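[step 3/7] fold_predict: job queued, chain A
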Amino acid sequence: MFSQIAADALLAAWAENPLDAQCAAVLAGVAAKLPSLPPTLLPTIKSAMEHWQPDVTPEAQNAMAGDRGVQLTFLKERLHHAPRNLFWWHHLYEFARIHGDWSVLVAMLGEAMPPEGLASLFAFTMANGLLASGEARAAAGTYRECLHSLPLPVGEERLVTAWLRSGKIEKATELLRRCAEVRPWNAGLWLRLYELKTGGASRHTPLSGRTMVLGYSYNKADDLAETLDSLVKSDLGDAHVRILDNGSSDDTPDVIRRFVDRFGSERAEAVTMPVNVGAPAARNWLMNLPEVRKSDFVAYIDDDISLPQDWLLRLGAAVERYPDAGVWGCKVVNHDGPARVQCGEHNLTPDKQERKDILMSTIMLQDGDFGQADYIRPCTSVTGCVHLFRPDHLLENGPFDLRFSPTQYDDLERDLRMVLGGGYAVYQGFLSILHKRKTGSVSQAGQLEEGNTSANMYKLQTKYTVEEFERMASGMDRVLLDDLMGKMKALYG
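[step 4/7] structure written:
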């Protein structure tokens, strides 16, 4: 059993970037110890390694450190001169994944002549690009062709997603069931199967009582205007809105004023701060408004997002499923490339020694969105991009910690504090929020933000003891296991 799990994990890692021959080399190195590794994969692995020729020159490093246009121009030039070098195809795949834009990869693969022994690998890569680009039917056909020549378990999972997105629900359900039975250790398969049985993907539930939508912004007038435009178009019922201007010096006051006029001054108001007090203080100020304290639900939204029309109904479905949770959240995807998941559910890194370096698991962090996390379940934390609370739980847990000003990780710290007290968050994987990414990482502003982010993570890691983090992790292990076993029992009785 353990060798099967090890082989499955390594194959899954390879499938995340099938053109990465370094990962293929790891598989080759342990093939003799993993009898469950399909022997038909070995020729492909060997060919991938033979066509891997690293080209780490100062010119390449400078180009790949440049902006998006510079990177793409350089990669195209390299592949024009070395079309058989898998090293550059690997980097083009990473370019597509990072930017959530798979069109260039699909176009170049369509014109490429695969190196000897790699036709199936290139076809599988093409299927990934098609699926991520929204061409589900074409992706399904290509995945099916690869099942025998390149028997990667992830290929079947993605065929499930392609069929689901093509409306072939029965075929997808049957294949997903077979995948789960063959690989019972893969929790994600059972979670997705449960959602198919219960109709989680189509569930919309209005929140009972009064809901307050809260936002805050500082000098991001254009982004805020787009966010508020999507808010006006949302199915909000009779929800009320408060938008806090955090001492902005740009057109933010006018943007908020126009929104209030459009939404209705009887349901929306501006809250104005004379200076920028930072994100934690802004959240605390809003949650302590008398009308917010008296409401039944409170939803915080970021100022650089685009909300789908049904976002509040999707959160309502998560509340209906898990009414006792401490917070409900979403999946966050790139605004300009929604095939990339910026973040989803957050859980602590399992190994307590590793938590000294990486506190939270990197699963569902900057991944391609192939439907692998389309489910609703408990977790340790959800992103503060869009999250929903009951005011009494929010207030009982205490204010957002001002030590994490001006921003970054104050939402995560609040969730960890909640978990330490016996609570849990809930991730709604059928709610995808388009979120604008930060730009200018090499600018002075980017360096300052990076420094603040690193400092706040250090504060977070040192705020709690090793024993407290372990209590959080152990408590969430029980919550997650109970949830999974309950869903498996519901599937099989």
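[step 5/7] annotate
DSSP finds 21 helices and eleven strands in the chain.
Residues 466-492 form the longest helix (27 residues).
exit 0
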